[in-house]
Amino acid sequence: MNISPVSAFSRVETRGGQLGDEGEASSFSGSSSIGVGLTSPLFSIIVPTYNEERFLPALLESIEKQTFQDYEVIIADDCSTDMTQNIARAYGARIVNNNGIGEYPSRNAAATVARGSILVFTGADTLMPRTLLSSAAAKFEKDPKLAGIYCPTYPYDAPLWAKIEFAMFHVLNTLIYWIAKEANASTAFFAIRTEMFRKTRGFQNTCFGDSTFTRQLSKGLRIRPCLDLVIFVSGRRTKMGMAGFNRHHIGLVMNVIFKPFRGSRWLRAENEHRNKIHSRASQS
Fold first, then answer.
1. Distance CA 32, CA 30 (A)
2. Which residues, in sequence order, are CB contacts of 146 under 8 Å at separation 6+?
3. Pairwise CA distance, residues 108 & 27, whole Å
4. Which pTM does this prediction carry?
């Protein structure tokens, strides 16, 4: 596999110091102070946040109810102004403070301080079925050559049209995997061995950074979908209406399926549009 091991991780500096109430400062443009644990869990669950006080408690509750308990939770917070960090502390999560660097760089930053041997990337508006982590652990244990897994997402509170679209996309995405052996994962749930992730440059800071990353990885590593697993996500992205939601889905389908369009001017413009929507600055 030809992926450069010199990555953005080398840009994260650490300094000694006591971990206090402000959490762990980590930024690609700054320095960090991290706590050192006595034991290493199997999973490091990484959640990027910006003002997620509405959704975060439900996710953390679903994690606490997992039948498999060998994990840590890392909240990669992009300077939230609400109760997000207080909620994270109340649930015992580690906090990585970022300074407006965006979703995918925040995921990369958290991965540099993760203690687990497997990284689990998810979102603040997801819900984990009780056996999700135990099932994932069993798959990695059964296959030592397995580098990463992902699964379908189900928008539990979305309108019917959106649920149908999600299902159609996952059928299409699975067919692409079986035909082309090309993995297009979503970071609603994507688990990867930490040692494998740290040999890469991490996620690109684009709107389709997750599928782009896993597509590249699957050229040389075993990254596969697990259709017996599911992650529940909120339908908040459908609040923009069918037209706005499908603008994103059209871009996603073009990025995943139609290779000639991946470098198109329209798709580049769509990347910029989506990044502005999801940036911390646009929400402040």
1. 7
2. 139, 140, 193, 222, 224
3. 10
4. 0.78
Q: How far apart are CA 128 and CA 221, in angstroms?
A: 26
DSSP 11-44: G-EE------TT-EE--TTSEE-----SS--SEE
Domain range summary for the chain, segments of one domain joined by +: 8-283
The top-level CATH class assigned to 8-283 is alpha beta
Q: Which residues contact 284 (CB under 8 A, 6 or more apart)?
A: 81
**What does the pLDDT profile of the chain (284 residues) look like in tens digits?**
433 332 333 222 222 222 333 344 433 332 222 233 457 999 999 999 999 999 999 999 999 999 999 999 999 999 999 999 999 999 999 999 999 888 999 999 999 999 999 999 999 999 999 999 999 999 999 999 999 999 999 999 998 988 998 898 889 889 889 988 889 899 999 999 999 999 999 998 877 788 889 989 999 999 999 999 999 999 887 676 666 666 555 555 555 555 555 556 655 565 655 555 444 444 43
